Amino acid sequence: MFIPLHDANTLKHIKVQWVTLALIALNVAVWLFTTLESELAAQATTVGLGYIPAIAFGHAQLAEGLEIVPEPLTYLTYAFVHMGFWHLASNMVFLWVFGDNVEDALGHMRFLLFYLLCAAAGALCHGFLTTTSEAPLVGASGAISGVVAAYVMLHPRVRVWVLVFFRVPLPLPAFVPLLLWIGQQFFMLAIAPDGDVSWGAHVGGILAGAALILVLRRPGVPLFDRQIVTPRAVRDDSGAAAAGTDGRTVQRLPWGRGRR
Questions:
Q1: Tens digits of per-residue pLDDT, 107-140?
Q2: Which of 96, 104, 101 is nearest to 6 (CA)?
Q3: What is the SS3 assignment for 109?
Q4: Which residue spans traverse the membrane (predicted)?
């Protein structure tokens, strides 16, 4: 539906989003490790770290030698394994654009707890919907869905540059693309619950993120902020804002000169 590119939402409580950066680095590192492995070893990693509902609910057992971590830990480890570059890239772009502000609202350690709980909720929801499935669930989508839900509850009016249908860049209030995205997850779960994409994991992450942001955010951090923030204009070499012929500030795409 869309790819987030940039938001103009500055950090208020932290200087650097260390946990967001560390999560991205860890996901990339695990993907590189599985990519460099042989195909057989990569499959074993997916099975050993992925969340398998049939095993979690006692309908099957993992073959001897394939267990990498105890089964309860797979509610978390699955979220750090990805099947391919685009699977990884799509999740990490969402985390890069939206994770820093959610981390800012929660604090470093509470954001890490939030992220892991959303991942676990995604796995649990997926498992309840597919209790006998022996296919490993992998990917950070459950956790990322929680981040998206939290962001739209915190900053619905912040303008976000999104690439619509992979072609058209538009600055939109966050609630427009994010609520459409959230609605799509519920819709797809209703019409295609058994597809290759685990819509159940997405929905579980969304519900967990919406609930957890209520109790984990910093004291005094408001929900549904009312300020509309427009992406900064690209500035010229002198630091003055670029202006149009009528004297009004020209808003441009955020990836040119002067980008913060």
A1: 999 999 999 999 999 999 999 999 999 999 999 9
A2: 96
A3: helix
A4: 16-33, 40-63, 75-99, 111-129, 135-154, 161-182, 197-216
Rounded distance between C-alpha atoms, residue 172 and residue 170, angstroms: 6
Confidence at 93, pLDDT banded by 50, 70, 90? very high
| 3-class secondary structure, 194 | coil
Q: Which residues pair with 3 in a beta bridge?
A: 163
- Rounded-to-integer distance, Cα 55 and Cα 132, Å: 8
The two tokens of residue 65 are 């030698």
- Residue 181 · residue 205 · CB < 8 Å: no
184 in helix, strand or coil? helix
pTM of the full structure = 0.85
- DSSP β-bridge partners for residue 164: 2, 168
Site of tokens 């072609």? 167
